[in-house]
Amino acid sequence: MVIGAADAELSDEVVAARAAFPEARRPDRSRAVLSAGLRLAVYEWGDEAAPPLVLAHGGFDFAGTFDVFAPMLAEAGFRVVAWDQRSHGDSEHASMHNWDADVRDAVAVLDSVSSAAVPVVGHSKGGGLMLQLADACPHRVSHLVNLDGLPSKRTPPDVSDTERTRLLAGELAAWLDHRRTAAEAERRPGTLEELAQRRGRMNPRLPIAWLRYLVTVGARRDADGWRWKIDPAMRMGGFGPWRPEWSLLRMPGLGMPFLGVLGLEIEPMGWGTLPDDVRPYLPPGAELVTLPGTGHFVHIERPVDVARLVVDFLAANP
Amino acid sequence: MTTTIVRHAKVDLALHELRAARGPVLLLLHGLGERSPRGVPPVAATWPGAVHALDLTGHGGSTVPTGGGYTCEVLMADADAALGQLGPATVLGRGLGAYLALLLAGARPALVRGAVLDDGPGLFGGPSAPASPSVVQLAPDTPRSAPDPYALVELTRDVRPADYAASFARQAAQLSPLEHPISVAAKGRPPWLEAAADVVGVRVLDVAAALADYAGLAPTGNG
Questions:
Q1: Are B113 and B178 in contact (CB under 8 A)?
Q2: Which of A11, A203, B19, B210 has the fewest CB atoms within 10 Å around its CB?
Q3: Does the structure show a pLDDT above 60 at B2?
Q4: How distant, in Å, are the alpha carbons of A130, A152, A183, A255, B82 from that of A250?
């Protein structure tokens, strides 16, 4: 998996879509990491010798959604590392998913970076995963930043299967019907523009030029059109025994410096968490920053501000 | 014994026909770390119809997938994929298979013609509410053969809240055409099973009597 080789053959439409969003920068390096035998695609921006900083993306996203945010952190002096979660982006499509497996994958990525504690930033579901990582492995997380992924008692939309409690006969049957046909499932092909428009329904606040850019990274060009790379067996929604409030109860005991960032505009992929939901559960000394007029993708809508928040937070907690 | 392969997403499941016959269908679900029996077990000897047994993902003759990620919900979908081949069936589950039979009875009330929940490996599962988390990474050279070591690790740590299990039992009781769609035969009583057993419409009955009832062979007491 060498990005440079692929980049040498970029088609005209890819070149045009990327040129139309010049703020974004593809990673400087990519490599593969095995987690329990599963191949994960790992990406890096910035000087390899700089102090590491690890980013975890949200559900149904991929590391390329950091293509604006990560270069800013790299410019601030970090070796920024992100990975495509199992069945997302260019990582291998796994047969099964649960949070323990996602956290195990995260540890495999950390193992490939440093055995020491490193700062970790997680968005949305990635933020929730990193809360569990910090609780399970406090010796691996020096600072924890959560970008609009603080749990509340509301049910997040980008967290699938085992992380939900909703239990309706129709939903159960629909999920099982989906599983019965998952072997033949394919993402619907379309033009680059069609995929960008479709993603716009999940990302209504993000500029279309950015969504077109994302297609060139998170989708592949097949003979019959573009398709998102994410495993077609993945499905939003679902059910399971997990309750969001259980994640909430992991926060007060975290011992590392903690920064939470909440976008206050409610939108489809957001978790709907309000500041008052989480304040009582923040660990001692935690910072909570709220961003009015900003949606769920805080680091995409306001990359300069959020990158500065992260860099200042790390500098203030050496 | 003939074996057919049932595809469930990326996994090939081994579905064994232990006895071919007309009449009602019985599906056996093994316990955690087990595999399907080679022949009809004695307790099901008098079952009047066909008897099938499914090897769950990571077990027996089924695919051992890469990377773990086991949930009882996805294994329930294994069993549902078998029902997709077999049609309506009575489900007899041991241990882990008993929990899956309960979930399936709630999720497919028209297809499960009675679920019998028996003792077996994996009956207790993980806690009712989350324990402190930990990260388990097996050595990279751990053999990738059945039973999958990640199944053995993950399915003894999964959370099985009592009210979650009870909600599947209630759904089965409300939506199944059977008066007693779930029969609890297990002597082991983890909190999830205790809660399910307390649901109206769920009865406590030994395996032989429950199977006889679901087969329509003989009237049974209320147990």
A1: yes
A2: A11
A3: yes
A4: 11, 12, 36, 11, 38
Q: Which amino acid is at B118?
A: D
Cα(A262)–Cα(A274) distance, rounded to whole angstroms? 8
What local confidence, expressed as pLDDT, does residue A245 receive?
Answer: 81
Nearest Cα residue to B106 out of B160, B185, B181, B207: B181
- Judging by DSSP bridges, how do beta strands A258-263 and A141-147 pair with one another? parallel
Nearest residue in chain B measured CA to CA from A238:
B73
Provide the phi-psi class of B152: left if phi over 0, else alpha when psi is between -120 and 50, else beta: alpha
Tell me the C-alpha distance between A124 and A90, whole Å. 20
Measuring CA to CA, how many Å separate B47 from each of A26, A274, B18, B111?
Answer: 63, 57, 12, 18
Q: How far is CA B63 from CA A95, A313, B8, B28, B123, in A?
A: 10, 47, 10, 18, 22
Q: Do residue A167 and residue B168 have CB atoms under 8 angstroms apart? A: yes
Residues B29-67: tens digit of each pLDDT: 999 999 999 999 999 999 999 999 999 999 999 999 999
Q: What is the pLDDT of residue B139?
A: 87
Let me know: does B82 contact B52? Beta carbons within 8 Å. Answer: yes
The alpha-carbon gap from A254 to the nearest alpha carbon of chain B, in Å, equals 12
Query: Would you state the structure tokens that stand for residue B214, as one six-digit string?
Result: 């679901």
Residue A157, pLDDT score: 58
Which of the pair, B220 or A247, is modelled with greater confidence?
A: A247
Residue A269 has pLDDT above 50, yes or no: yes
Facing A242 at nearest CB: one of B7, B157, B159 = B159
Q: Which two tokens stand for residue B183?
A: 């029969």
Query: What is the secondary structure of B151-166 as a DSSP string?
Result: HHHHTTT----HHHHH
Q: Is the pLDDT of residue A1 over 60?
A: no
DSSP SS3 for B121: coil
Q: What tokens does A224 get?
A: 């019959």
Q: What is the pLDDT of residue A7?
A: 54
Which residues of chain B lie closer than 8 angstroms to A94, CB-CB? 65-67, 69
The 3-state DSSP class for residue A279 equals helix
Residue A1 C-beta-side C-alpha neighbours within 13 Å: 16
Q: Which of B7, B70, B138 is the closest to A183 by Cβ?
A: B7
The residue among B47 and A267 whose pLDDT is bigger is: B47
Q: Which residues contact A168 (CB under 8 A, 6 or more apart)?
A: none
